Structures are given as C-alpha cells and as structure tokens.
Automatic annotation (TrEMBL), chain B:
<feature type="domain" description="Radical SAM core">
    <location>
        <begin position="255"/>
        <end position="502"/>
    </location>
</feature>
<dbReference type="Pfam" id="PF19864">
    <property type="entry name" value="Radical_SAM_N2"/>
</dbReference>
<protein>
    <submittedName>
        <fullName>B12-binding domain-containing radical SAM protein</fullName>
    </submittedName>
</protein>
<dbReference type="InterPro" id="IPR023404">
    <property type="entry name" value="rSAM_horseshoe"/>
</dbReference>
<dbReference type="InterPro" id="IPR045784">
    <property type="entry name" value="Radical_SAM_N2"/>
</dbReference>
<dbReference type="InterPro" id="IPR007197">
    <property type="entry name" value="rSAM"/>
</dbReference>
<dbReference type="GO" id="GO:0051536">
    <property type="term" value="F:iron-sulfur cluster binding"/>
</dbReference>
<dbReference type="InterPro" id="IPR023862">
    <property type="entry name" value="CHP03960_rSAM"/>
</dbReference>
<dbReference type="InterPro" id="IPR058240">
    <property type="entry name" value="rSAM_sf"/>
</dbReference>
<dbReference type="GO" id="GO:0003824">
    <property type="term" value="F:catalytic activity"/>
</dbReference>
<dbReference type="Pfam" id="PF04055">
    <property type="entry name" value="Radical_SAM"/>
</dbReference>
<dbReference type="InterPro" id="IPR006638">
    <property type="entry name" value="Elp3/MiaA/NifB-like_rSAM"/>
</dbReference>
Length: 244, 622
C-alpha cells in the first residue's frame, strides 16, 4: 500500500464564559463532533471503532478560562486557514472561539510533546478581597520569593510527598492591578515538572500564615509555549504556517 | 452570555457542573419578551439520563418551532446540588434562560418509569411550586404529566394539574392556543383547567372524583362536570412520516447515556407479548418510510457531528424496510466513519450478516430475550420465540465466530412453576453444549460465555396481566436461588453466569404502577423524609418506603400482591387506549389456556386499535 500523506494541523481556541465548567474529557468529545460538523478531513485510526487523530496540548482544569488552548490533528487534506476557521466557528457554541488553524512541518512533534511553559493570570473574584494592596504585594513577593535562593514546598501527590523547589519552575511572576488585584505567572508546564499556578500562590499564602481559598481566584490561561533551541519561549500558536 | 443561576462556588463544588449550565449545541435561546408562553420540559432524573430521552427532543423541537413559545429543559439536580439548593433556597431554573421555572407558564414532565415519582416532588419542591395541584395559585405554572406512566396517573394525580394521555404530536397546539386566549381574557387557572379538560386526551384529575368500597376497591370514578369526558382517549399520531422530528437534536457536553443520533423507525409493536405494556399502549404499530429515515439520518448526523447512530423501536426486526435502511446506513455512513449501534434484532442469518459488518465478532455478543425458560411459559406470555428459533440462531452465530450469548428472562410470571424456572438454566446449558457440537476444536475462539439475566415480572396497567398478583421480595429471591441452584447441576455451568435483579425495587414498582390516588400521600411521605432518586440503587431506601406504608395506611398486599378480580374497577379504567378491556380479558384467558395469539400481521385479533385509522391495521388494503 502506498504511504498516505498526512498533514499536521494545529488549532488554537479560546474558552470563556460558562464553558469554563466543561471539563477536559467533555471538551475532547465536543471537538470530535465539531470537527465532523465543520467537515474537516481528519484522519481516523483503523478498526471497528475508528477514532480521530487528535491530541490536546494540556488539559485545562474546570473553572479556568483560556485564550491559548491547542489541539493538534492529522488531516488528509485541508482548506485554507480562513475557510477552516470560518467553518469551525460557524459550528461553535458560545464561549468557544477558534483563533488559529496552521499547518505544521511534516515531522513536527505534537504540542503535548513539546510544551514547556504556560502563562496564567489569577485575579481576585468579586466578593473576595486581597489581603494586601498592590504595593504591599510587590514587597511580599520580593521578600518571600525573589530574594530567596530557593522556594521549597512539600508537593503532595496521590502516591507520595516530596520537596520541590518552585523557583526554577517559575519563569515570570508579578502582581497586576487592573480592576482587581491579581497575579501574572509563567510556569513550567508539561509531562515533567508541571506546575499549576495556584500552587505558587497558595504556597506563598502558606508561608505568610494566610488561609488560601481556591475559589477566591479566577484563573485564566493566557498562552502555552515551547522552548526553542536558543532557550526562548515560543507560543505554540506561532509555530507552523497559515494555509492560503 | 447569560448569567448562570448558580454561583462559581456552587458549580465548582458539585459533580459534573456542566449539567447545569445549558449552552449546549442546538439548544434554543429566545428573547423572553418576544414569546407568549414559557415552557419547561422536564425529565425528573439526572441530566445524563434525561438528555438521552427522545420524546423530549421531539417536543422541544416541535414547541420551539412556534415563535410564541420558548421551551427550555430542566432535570433533577443530583443529590449534591439538591442539598445546596435546599440550604440556600435557590429556585430550580430552566437550563436555557437560567431563570426560575416557577415563573414559567407550564412545566411538562415526562414520566418514563415509576421509580422517578419522588423526583417529581423534588422538581416541584426545588422549583418552589406547591406540591399539590389544589394548593397552586393563578401565578404558579401549570404542571403537566406525560409519558408511559400516565396510563395509570392516579398515584401521582394530586401533584399534576393535567395529564396528556398519548403521543404529544396531536394536541399541544390546541392547548397552547387555548391557554393564550384565556390568558388574554384574564381567566383563572380553574377556568383554564375546566376548558382544557374538554380537549381530547387531556385528563384533569381535580375534575374527577373517586369513591371507594368498604373493601378499599373503587366503587365509582366520575367527572364532577357534565361537559367533560367520562373516559380519556389516548392520542395517536397516525402520520409519522409528516410528524415533526428534530433535525437538530441537542448535543450535551456531559456524556449522556444515549450519546448518539437516535432514529425512530416505528412506533408500536405487532407482537402482543402479554407482559408488555409498550406493546399495548403504543398500538397500532406504525412504520416510517425508509426514504424519510434516510434523509433524517443524513441531516441529524450533519447537524450534531455524532459518530454513532442507533435505531429506536420496540421490535426492529419487524420493520419492513429494515434491510434497505441498514444497507444505506452501512454503505453511506461507514464512509463517514459513523458507527451503527444495532438494536436487539431477532438473531437469524440476516441479522448476523449485518452484525458482522458493524461489530467486532470477537468482542460482541448475541442477545436472545426468550423471557421465559419453558415453551409452556412462553405460550402463556405469548412470546413467539421457540427453542428451535433460539438454537438455530445460536448455532449460526457460533459458526459465524461468536462465542458470547446473553439471555434475558423474567421470573415470577403468572402461573410460573418450578419446572418453568428450571427450564431457564437448562436452556442456557443446551446453548453452551451446542457451541461444542457446532464449532470444531481448532476453530474455537475460547470457551462459550453464556450470561443469563432475570428480572422479576411487574404486572402493568393495560396488559392482559394487569389483574395478576405479585410476590413478596423474599419469594422472588427464592425463585432466583432456585434458578441458581439448578444452574449448578448443569453440565456446562462453568460457562454460564447468572445475574438477577433487585427484588425490593420490583415490588415497589409494582405498587406504584397499579396504585390509586391514595398512594400519593405515601410518595409524599417518602420525599418529605429524604427519599429521592429511587431509580438509583445507591439511593433507594426500602425501609423508608415501608415506614411510609405504615404511616399512610397503604399496603403491598392490597396494591401489589393481591390478584384482582376481573370485575373490579381498576384505577386506570377511565383511560381508553383504543385496545379494549374485552380484548385484554380475552388475552388473559388465552394465557390461562396457554394459547398463543398470532401477531398483527398474521391475523387481526380485533384489539380495537384499528379505530385510530392507520398503521399495521390497514397494511395491504390499498
């Protein structure tokens, strides 16, 4: 049998509003159907229950919104970026918007395999007060985090507890002040050294003797990145080319 | 985007919060100021179950085609959310608007099984709507019941303003038009209920009174006004090819139990099994034309993106154009990578050939539903499946590579003897033996795996067994143990697994199915003492029900175990399903004489359903 030529496509989407309550497995099923509705010529596995060749970059927790979600698919053929975006967006529910559709190089690895970092914001929700002002937070972060050589926490998993130094896993960290006080963090993401942004904030709360309420924050994923050969972070959405 | 009825804090603390947010693909959002009627369509069980129900999708689509109506959906909040809503006094809301259903014009509940009855009260209670029809004010919504349980609506009559008996396609336009005109004229709720009671198929329980004899049986059932019908006529949609059908069904985010395109190929059944309520209440059997179905399949797959389609009917093998339909689905849909989920087909060369094309033979099993183990008992229940049919089908399946067989039976059927029970494992043993006889050693794909499942028979209204007595739970369990013990004496018993159903739920289902108006207070007692989700074994609490029987003076003996005399007025006698009571009696006597009645295509048995003017009764007459 002749080798079938497969194109690799990366789709970028945003998740907002009530859709933040739809969990990862449900989102996977949602996209499997959306791909069919939009008549994207996706590749299927063989067998009695063929499944689509599709993989997500990094699962997003329930309650979190995002401007940078990615799924990679294999297709047999494709229309242009503009046409595909239009076809997909025509069949989206409110709260999901497709913002990228790019072709990856032939031997590109999946986003899941190359993901290195994620940028997040964490903002106090209405009805929840920050224990500090913007300036106080600046000072707290300097003393508790930046001026320290290490920021060691006890990381608990289902199986074990181990000490982890968060400092090398946090690439960028700052206080923000728009309508509400919040934090902007760029943290290590991927199959190894995956760090959730809320763990950074809750650990700081703990060091300060404050009680951390996870419901106090709206977490938002800004984007996901890979690390290039020269050590720079590159948005997963900037890889590959648009199709004309 | 709409603001949600529940806060982030609540939604992040309950299981599967996507059940409560609406916003699903193909759900309908309208401007509430542009409609005259707001309708909440309810399935009183959890979202994942309710979203699987075809009837709601049909009516949701049909209602929303009207510009003057906005139909939304509401399901039972799972116990985790139920508790929070009670504590915080949050009113139950429609999924689409996220607004309280107490402000709607109508709430329509589909009642698919008796074990959801406490959930009816949950919906009303969380909805902050009075539980009793008589306590509702003009500003409260009108509560409508529909679905198969309404063929005996009496145990829940107190909780509903009216019941719609039969298929929803026929009368809702008339109901809505009447409601709109009376709303404009500022008529009261009471006046509306009196008028709606004149529409054929509508039963307003508060306008009928029941008196009882000293022995607790019904003495008389009659309307309190002269201008409303004495008996309520079941509604039937005769022309299914032109009836509304949802081309854009809602696609849930949360995985529903039936998460695929459902193609209804026919309604009703020609078979006339004597235990089967659906086989009687959906008479006459009506088929949809295959060309209509092909078009529906195509459109629904496109609008949903589902990769699976299943056929819906009571007996798919009896559908005339099944071969053409399956050929189409296999050839056209397989190209599009659509899986075909086969309904239980009669096992023969044709169905095995189809199954081979769409399933992995090694993984799949073939299913027989003999329902009874002995031929004598199968004659009693009028299940026209013989040992030869089963053995031929199983033999062909074994030759075709299958080695897994599932067998479904009922225990506790009227007149069942120990021989009839023993025949169940004996039949399973014969099938296992047939495998060794049929398949040579070198071709065997492991040992045969036979699974027997037995449920306990529940007599239902509008069946020839509606007079039959049930047995106490311990008695059912004895029957299951007898089957199990006898199974162990069979040569091939190691190849056979046996499962039996819950006996306590069975007797309760029997009581609720054939109860009268006095059972309502029992249901209310259970709900008020914390009973909900009785259909879920982890929530079913038989002790609580027993306590309720005691407190409300209702007995299993009277409602479930007792054999009812033929001349007793049954609580549901005022409903006219087209199939006559004299036919039911004739069939009861045939059962007692172990006589088989031919199916509707072989010969008309004059059941009465021909009066509806369509379907199988008029086949081959053009």
């Amino acid at each position: 049998m002749a080798e079938v030529y497969v194109l690799k496509i990366r789709i970028k989407f945003q998740k907002s509003g009530v859709m933040k309550f739809v969990g990862h497995l449900d989102m996977m099923r949602y996209f499997q159907r959306a791909i069919r509705r939009a008549e994207i010529d996706i590749c299927y596995s063989e067998g009695f229950s063929p499944h689509q060749k599709m993989s997500f970059a990094s699962p997003l927790g329930v309650g979190i919104t995002s401007d940078g979600e990615y799924l990679d698919i294999d297709v047999n053929s494709t229309k242009s970026t503009a046409e595909s975006l239009a076809a997909l967006n025509k069949t989206m529910v409110e709260g999901i918007r497709i913002v990228g559709y790019r072709q990856l190089p032939e031997h590109a690895k999946t986003s899941m395999a190359i993901i290195a970092a994620g940028r997040y914001t964490m903002t106090y929700k209405e009805g929840y007060d920050s224990p500090y002002t913007y300036e106080e937070w600046k000072q707290v972060l300097k003393e508790q985090f930046f001026d320290q050589d290490q920021f060691v926490i006890l990381k608990k998993t289902k199986k074990s507890e181990r000490e982890v130094d968060l400092k090398p896993l946090v690439f960028d960290f700052d206080v923000t002040e728009d309508d509400n006080i919040g934090f902007s963090l760029c943290v290590s993401t991927g199959s190894t050294d995956n760090l959730k942004p809320e763990l950074v904030i809750s650990s700081i709360y703990e060091k300060l003797g404050l009680t951390f309420d996870p419901l106090a924050f709206q977490i938002h994923r800004v984007d996901l990145y890979t690390k290039t050969g020269d050590g720079q972070f590159l948005s997963l959405g900037e890889m590959g080319e648009e199709i004309v | 985007m709409n603001k949600l009825a529940l806060s982030d804090e609540i939604l992040l603390s309950v299981e599967k919060s996507a059940r409560y947010i609406g916003n699903e693909l193909n759900s309908v959002v309208k401007d509430k100021n542009s409609v005259d009627i707001r309708f909440a369509m309810c399935f009183p069980d959890v979202y994942d179950i309710g979203m699987s129900h075809l009837g709601i999708q049909i009516l949701y689509d049909m209602f929303n085609r009207r510009d003057d109506i906005w139909c939304e959906r509401v399901y039972s909040p799972w116990p985790d959310l139920h508790k929070i809503m009670k504590e915080k006094n949050i009113p139950l809301f429609g999924l689409e608007s996220q607004e309280p259903i107490k402000d709607f014009d109508f709430i329509g509940m589909t009642l698919q099984y008796e074990m959801c009855y406490t959930n009816i009260l949950q919906i009303l209670d969380l909805g902050q709507i009075p539980l009793h029809s008589t306590d509702r004010a003009d500003s409260d919504p009108i509560i409508i019941g529909g679905g198969p349980c309404t063929y005996n609506p009496e145990p829940i009559a107190d909780f509903f303003d009216f019941f719609y008996i039969g298929e929803g396609e026929t009368q809702y336009d008339a109901i809505f038009d009447l409601y709109k005109s009376m709303k404009k004229g500022n008529y009261s709720r009471k006046e509306f209920l009196h008028e709606v009671a004149k529409i054929e198929g509508i039963y307003v329980p508060s306008l009928y009174e029941v008196t009882y004899k000293e022995d607790n049986t019904i003495s008389e059932f009659k309307p309190i006004y002269d201008d409303i019908p004495v008996s309520i006529k079941k509604q039937v949609e005769v022309d299914l090819d032109h009836a509304p059908y949802p081309m854009k069904p809602i696609v849930p985010f949360v995985q529903a139990v039936q998460d695929r395109v459902t193609l209804e190929i026919q309604r009703g059944c020609i078979r006339g099994c004597r235990f089967c309520q659906a086989g009687m209440i959906y008479r006459p059997n009506r088929e949809k034309d295959v060309s209509v179905l092909k078009e529906y399949a195509h459109q629904m797959l496109r609008s949903t993106g589902y990769d699976e389609i299943s056929l819906s009917s009571l007996s798919s093998s009896d559908y005339h154009q099944l071969e053409e339909l399956l050929d189409f689905l296999i050839n056209d849909c397989s190209k599009e990578r659509v899986n075909i989920s086969l309904p239980s087909l009669r096992i023969d060369a044709f169905s095995l050939d189809i199954m081979k094309k769409v399933q992995d033979v090694k993984k799949s099993s073939i299913t027989f539903a003999p329902e009874a183990g002995s031929q004598r008992m199968r004659n009693v229940i009028n299940k026209g499946l013989t040992v030869e049919n089963i053995m031929n089908g199983a033999g062909q399946a074994f030759e075709g590579g299958w080695n897994k067989v599932k067998l479904y039976f009922m225990l506790g059927l009227p007149g069942e003897t120990e021989d009839d029970m023993r025949a169940i494992p004996e039949l399973a043993n014969e099938i296992a033996a047939l495998y060794y006889d049929t398949v040579p050693k070198e071709k065997r794909n492991g040992a045969p795996q036979i699974t027997i499942s037995t449920s306990f028979f529940v007599p239902k209204p509008f069946t020839p067994f509606q007079w039959a007595g049930m047995f106490p739970p311990e008695d059912y369990l004895d029957r299951a143990h007898l089957v199990n013990d006898h199974l162990k004496t069979q040569l091939n018993h190691k190849r056979i697994r046996y499962n039996w159903h819950e006996a306590y739920i069975t007797v309760l289902e029997g009581l609720l199915a054939r109860g009268d108006r006095r059972v309502a207070k029992t249901i209310e007692y259970v709900y008020n003492h914390g009973g909900i989700f009785d259909a879920w074994s982890e929530y079913f609490n038989f002790e609580l029900w027993q306590e309720a029987f005691e407190a409300t003076n209702v007995s299993l003996e009277f409602y479930a175990y007792r054999t009812r005399p033929e001349d007793e007025i049954l609580p549901w006698d005022f409903i006219d399903i087209g199939v006559t009571k004299s036919f039911m009696l004739r069939e009861k006597h045939n059962a007692e004489a172990e006589m088989v009645t031919p199916n509707c295509r072989m010969r008309c048995s004059a059941c009465g359903a021909k009066n509806y003017g369509g379907g199988v009764c008029f086949e081959n007459q053009n």
